[in-house]
Predict the structure.
Amino acid sequence: MVNVWRSIRFTIVFAIILGLIYPLLVTGIGNVLFPYQAKGSIVSWNGRPVGSMLIAQAVTSPGFFHPRPSAVNYAANGSGGSNLGPTNPALVAEVKQNLQTVERQNPGIKVSQIPPSMVESSASGLDPDISVQDALLQVPRISRVTGISQSSLQQMIQNDEVSPVLGIWGQRMVNVMQLNLAILHRMGRS
Amino acid sequence: MTIAGSIGILAVIALILIIGIPLGDYLYYLFRGEPSRMDKVFHPLEKWLFRAVGADPSVKMDWKAYLRALIMVNFAMMIFAYLVFRLQGVLPLNPSHIKGMPWDLAFNTAASFITNTNWQNYAGEQSMSYLGQMLGITYLQFTSAATGFVAAIAFVRGLIANRSESIGNFWVDFIRIHTRLLLPLAFVFSLILIGLGVPQTLLGPETVHTLQGVLQTISRGPVASLEAIKQLGTNGGGYYNANSAHPFENPSAISNVLEMLAMGIVSTALVWTFGRFIKNRKQAVVLYVFLTAILIIGAFIIYSNEAGGNPILQHVLGIHGSNMEGKEERFGPAMSSVFAAITTAFTTGAVNSMHDSYMPMGGFIPLLFMMFNLIFGGKGVGLLNILMFLIITVFLSGLMVGRTPEIFGKKIEAREIKLATIAMLAHPFIILVPAAIALVTKVGTSSILNPGLHGLTEVLYAYTSAAANNGSAFAGLNGNTVFYNVTLGLVMLIGRYVSLIAMFAIAGSLAKKAVIPPSAGTLRTDTFAFGGVFVAVFVIVGALTFFPALAIGPIGEQLQMWAHLLH
């Protein structure tokens, strides 16, 4: 019986410490130290929040960089991957459809140039980044629609490129939101 | 495969060892029961906690008393979490107006988190309120890790005791592991994670008009405080459905490396702590060499398969390059593969890529690691499984060379072998039997997403993950049905407590025995030859028990894939 009473006391005392005090303390200190990150890295354009730096959104307009395919249609309140297995015919169908979309939007592109990540769905459905190769393949289309020269767009990609940490962890990639905000800036100026 | 990727994988595993070994020394000083400098800092808080809980820290417990307290407090916390999940709809801190869980899902979730499994049949951002994430999930992620940890410490005390009954005081161990290890580490790690981009807020979801002017609702909440203990406690249950693949749980290559280190260091440290306790560091070194080798081999098998890409897509559509279906750009194949190896070796269960979409042999390794359940293993229980297989190895080699089996100066007799066998056999039994039932019933098969042999692997993976208290998934399987909620919940509870009880009974009977000084006739366990036998035993036992299921699962699928390409 003594154990029962002690167990109940432990459960309540530690629920308060670990389940309330600890997360609330971290919330308080975290918001003082890193207010932008703690609230979800929300970015604004013209004073209005337009999304999160870390979360992909559905971008289909030809004048913007497009993110990787999403199995959940970029639902930032319902993340997930396709979970299709490697031998599932549905996987071939899905990738084929993504491939056709890419080819339609970027005429003249060769299949052999296309990196798999450009036509295969991400794990979260919200992958904010694309590979450098993916971004470069989109340059001619964006240049045609926006009138920004290809070399300026390539310069943007180069400016925003993230390299692997210490050369070993991660891949060469760019953040799509960052690129698209750069396009908006450029368009607003000219 | 690239050289940079390969070095990246090796560097992560090396860092786990470099941090783990000194941490093992710290844990040894923490639990050997002698006064230390740390006491001054923590005594006032701990004294208050002992009073609040009503525990007398001077009491010595035998194995039965220790185990009774452990089981009772686990049961109380499980009921508490069940009630939180059921009632979250009417409790505060629920900005998205999420409803309480139905009974079967609440049972599954409570069983999952009390057992350190963190299997999730719910999607966090859609079915868990902020209060549920804090008071249900984050809370149990601390205490379930602590439970496994103190069980391992208690067992080691039994191993070194000389004709004694006592294996320590449960309440002292259980409270100290929180105050002196888990809370400080989690606190610092969660602040680092926020700095790297993980949200931590009580504000509701942010609704934005995107660059194209459509609405997007961005879920956030107290993510970082959960994420930190999720990794440090080898829990693995994510705040979001996509787990550590979600950019808010794991925003960059750096956070990814830190999360892998957090998963690995404490279990790695425990092997060293064990070596210190038995006054034989070479024993720890032998274990490190073999376990690390297996971990590295596993990581590279996954990496080679994932980097090689999907030959079907290559053949049919002409797509060349790595398999990126279900992977994130910021991790790529190398950092996804090593994460998958580490999360199943250390039985965390966090995922940064979707294992269901791995190549057949890429998904085979995580499955195999969970079947072994001792490549370092989860918090505490990993060491217990290692010790269980060491006892069985000693027994088998003792039979072969005709010596009385003894381990670390303790005779191994019929009672210990019987108990170790129970602990060992429970694991395959609770994987294969329920998986077979699920595969021959409509309620079981109707949840499968992928057709063919891959679908079989989904079910096998689910029960293996539950039994190993891992929690990662071939997530195509829809587990949120009454059938899977109940069966997986029971498998998690049996997988946790049956082997725990058996190991405590062994600890109790070993504690009572006298320590025999080693002689020329002693079979040494700290040699590389013995380490090789140890690996052979658990590989053969694992392979023989699970081989038929693996053959019609991932191995068969790999063969089908090659056959498909020949046609």
Remarks:
- The mean pLDDT of chain A is 95.
- Residues 40-187 of chain A form one domain.
